[in-house]
Automatic annotation (TrEMBL):
Gene3D superfamilies: CAP. It holds the Pfam family CAP. CDD domains: CAP_GAPR1-like. It comes from Adineta steineri. Residues 55-81 are annotated as: Disordered. The lineage of its organism: Eukaryota, Metazoa, Spiralia, Gnathifera, Rotifera. Keywords: Membrane, Transmembrane, Transmembrane helix. This is SCP domain-containing protein. Residues 118-256 form the SCP domain. The chain crosses the membrane at residues 16-41, 90-109.
């Protein structure tokens, strides 16, 4: 039994649609490959040109030697710069042309930022710097405490709720750990940023008296009796929120013990 004209037309339509879809996908794939190949080809050509270039000029030799005290120019971000040589201008043009590819790589891998070990180190450094100002002993990082903090940071990242963990989650058998937490929307949460936010609460704290809810992050951070911390950080699934958690052992914010554990800054004592 032969095919009708309508059936033959549908077959041709299906075949044409499949061919067109495959052709478009192939063109996109070829375009990406050409772009990546062009990027590396430009790097290769620039390297070859630098190899066969004429001897460096006096300005280029000056640019290569170490900075002198009179040449250093400090920007807001603390970086040092000097007038660029011809070679640095060449690399600037290359980087400008390949900016799109670099942007795509960064967008594909949003986790390329401060990892959690670095986050813990920067948090510890910031906390101890402020504790010195309040004549409190420096803290140390404890791996077991970090596991506790990390679990709760991941829990908040899943639920989107910024709240204290249940007491049983941070109970070591002898006492419940102290806990501070913070969150950041659409910008990476760093250890220094988190600690500075807590320390701003000190402007509201009345030294010599028990603390309040709106100053408990500050008082826990500089609590004299605390000796170790655990640090955790997690990011929400949509990538918009960062959550940070620090647990303290021994805990702070104990009623009637503030005057013996939270001291005025050394310059105001």
């Amino acid at each position: 039994m032969g095919l009708t004209g309508t059936q033959i037309g549908l077959c041709f339509q299906s075949y044409w649609y499949m061919w067109l879809t495959n052709a478009l996908a192939g063109l996109v794939f070829i375009g990406i490959n050409i772009g990546v190949a062009g990027f590396f080809l430009k790097k290769f050509i620039a390297k070859k040109q630098a190899h066969y270039a004429e001897p460096p000029t006096v300005q280029e030799e000056t640019a290569r030697r170490p900075f002198s005290a009179s040449e250093i120019s400090t920007h807001d971000d603390g970086a040092m710069s000097r007038a660029s040589s011809r070679k640095s201008r060449t690399y600037f043009i290359l980087n400008k042309q390949s900016f799109f590819y670099i942007f795509c790589i960064v967008a594909m891998y949003p986790g390329a930022s401060e990892d959690n070990d670095e986050f813990a180190e920067s948090t510890l450094k910031a906390l101890n710097a402020f504790r010195r100002r309040h004549t409190a002993e420096p803290l140390g990082v404890n791996e077991q405490l970090c596991e506790i903090a990390q679990r709760w940071a991941e829990q908040m990242a899943r639920t989107g709720k910024l709240e204290h963990s249940p007491a049983e989650m941070r109970n070591l058998g002898r006492q419940t750990l102290g806990e501070n937490f913070s969150a950041s929307f659409q910008s990476e949460l760093t250890g220094e940023k988190m600690v500075r936010k807590w320390m701003k609460e000190g402007k509201r704290y009345m030294f010599g008296f028990d603390g309040r809810k709106d100053t408990e992050n500050f008082t826990q951070s500089v609590w004299q009796a605390s000796r170790e911390i655990g640090v955790g950080r997690a990011r929400s699934e949509d990538g918009n929120w960062w959550y940070g958690v620090v647990v303290f052992d021994p805990p702070g914010n104990i009623p009637n013990q503030y005057s013996n554990n939270v001291f005025l800054p050394a310059d105001k004592a």
